[in-house]
Amino acid sequence: MRTSKISQKDIALEGMMIALVFLGTFYFKIPTAFGYTHLGDCMIILATCLLGTKKGAVAGALGAGLADLIGGYTAWVLPTMAFKAAWVLVMGLVAFKLLKRFRYNLWVGAIAGGLIHIALYTLIKIPMFGVSYAFATLLTLSLQTLSGIVLGNIIFGMIKNKVSSLIADY
User: Fold this and answer.
1) Within a domain: residue 1?
2) Which domain holds residue 114?
3) Rounded distance, CA 60 to CA 152, Å?
4) Could you list the residue ranges that cross the membrane (predicted)?
5) Per-residue pLDDT tens for 2-16?
């Protein structure tokens, strides 16, 4: 039986990424005709790039779910948590397992997971609000997802060498 130790560093980094996802979702809202878009998705991508699939999924699910709960979007808490985790799980599978030696593995993984993210949100909106609404919000959701992928990967590219050494030394 394999047991794993969770270090104080792991707890601190996970908590920090949950907080960044929450802040990006809750505070950096951009109003749209169908609600709002936010910067939380780029923090989810960043968390996955920095911490890996499992920790990225936890950060994305808890941070975004907490933002929905505190923001009054209670009907969205569980779907958000499931959909953000699914995005990260697909990203991790593609980036860290299937294409781990490919130069753009993080981009391809994030895009593959992003497509799942868009599909899941669109499908849940059909029973909640109807087909018209679900497809009317597709463009906004796609732009939010794409901007999260681009910004998250760009931020990771800018900080990966500095952060990797800090995390290793900590």
Assistant:
1) no
2) 9-169
3) 13
4) 12-28, 82-99, 106-124, 130-156
5) 667 878 888 899 999
